[in-house]
Design a protein that fits this description.
The chain is mostly helical. Helix content is about 85%, strand content about 0%. The protein is flat.
Length: about 100
């Protein structure tokens, strides 16, 4: 793969993580208005299950293809793709922090 392909694939996977985490954050932020105020044992259970599912989904987005490349004996490509994805995620979080600092 070319360097631009790694950057593009990393961007796509990082955008997937950004969109997914934004959707979950929106649901959590607006949870009371969506679901109403609940005082139930099930709410912490739901949140913990959501946390576990989110960890699995984001792990697949970040690590899925690099693990596949690694097992296909393309170790260098796996590491480059992983670092490209992580670089985009770092760029996104820094951009959000700067945006929040300026607003």
């Amino acid at each position: 793969m070319k360097k631009s392909e790694f950057l593009l694939k990393g961007l796509i996977y990082a955008l997937g993580v950004l969109v997914y985490t934004s959707a979950v954050a929106w649901i959590l932020f607006n949870g009371e208005s969506i679901f109403g105020k609940k005082n139930s044992f099930l709410m912490p259970v739901v949140l913990l299950l959501l946390f576990i599912i989110s960890a699995c989904i984001t792990s697949l987005l970040v690590l899925g293809k690099p693990i596949q490349l690694y097992f296909d004996h393309r170790k260098k490509e796996a590491i480059v793709l992983l670092f490209c994805t992580l670089s985009w995620l770092i760029f996104f979080i820094l951009s959000i922090v700067v945006f929040l600092a300026l607003v």
